[in-house]
Amino acid sequence: MKTNYLKKYIISSYVLVWVLIICVAGVASLVFHAPPVIMWIIRNLIAWSPTYLLLIGWKYFRPDETRVAFVKRCFSGKVKLIPMICSFALTFGISVLSLFIFSMIMGKSMISYINWGTTALPLSIFLSFTSGPTGEELGWRGFMREEFNKKYGFLKSSVCQGLVWCFWHTLLWVVDSEFTDWRAIPYVISNIVVITCMTVLMNIFLEQHNNLIYSVLLHFGFNIIYVFLDADIGFFVILTVLYLIITPTAGLIRNRMVNNSLKNNDCKQKGEVDKLWK
């Protein structure tokens, strides 16, 4: 019977992150009362757990390939400036637009919902970038995307990846969220929808460019605003609606591009066949 390496990886990644959150972050916070910056560093180390797991346990998840060959393939696509800017701007722009709409509804300025905190801005940006954006992508959009793509088409594969990634955060919704009353319900729904939609958007870029730098920048564009955001649940409702509008639109554009590419290839192949008969 063929081993299900994807299932082994998903289960292991869930167990590992829950153990780290409870035994490392929990102890640091509740027992040692670690300051915010130290807790941030600990959360970053935990965010890298999908990558630790993949590279350390490589022979259990991809025994027919070397680590080096896998990593090279994940970053094999040519890096282009405009797509790089667009990948960051897409998720960052959706968040900014959501905040703008929310502030207009509430009759306040956007800046009133930004809390710069006590950590220096350059350090905040650095810690945000070295958290999930750089720590998770090799596992999720590298290994997991390839494995799901072997089983399903683009949309189903993307949705499955998004749901796995989404529920990997489940324990964080409980221990690291300010929404502990009725607002927890729309907050969780927002996370499920937005993270799944983000996965679709990431995979559109990766399908075109095959380089994880694009999903890293998409992830960073999404995360960076939440370092400073201090908004109520209404913001997340608006964010969810925007992702439900923008993601299907991007999917339709992607489908049209794929169909056009297939037609062009068919025409090219037909032309080559015609030449052989002339």
Describe the structure.
By secondary structure, this protein is an all-alpha fold. The protein is built from 14 helices and no strands. The chain has helices at 5-30, 36-47, 49-56, 58-61, 67-74, 81-106, 121-129, 132-135, 137-151, 154-167, 170-175, 184-209, 212-223, 233-277. The longest helix is centred in the C-terminal third of the chain and has 45 residues, at 233-277. The N and C termini lie far apart (51 Å). Residues 270-278 have low confidence and may be disordered.
Can you give me a brief rundown of this structure?
This protein is mainly α and 278 residues long.
Strand content: under 5%
- Tell me the series of helices and strands, N- to C-terminal: HHHHHHHHHHHHHH
Note poorly predicted spans. Answer: 270-278
What count of structural domains?
1
Structural class: mainly alpha
Characterize the largest beta sheet: strand count, sense, and whether it forms a barrel.
none
Number of strands: 0
- Overall mean confidence score, pLDDT: 92
Portion in helices: over 70%
Distance between the termini: 51 Å
Shape: globular
Radius of gyration: 21 Å
Count of DSSP-assigned helices: 14
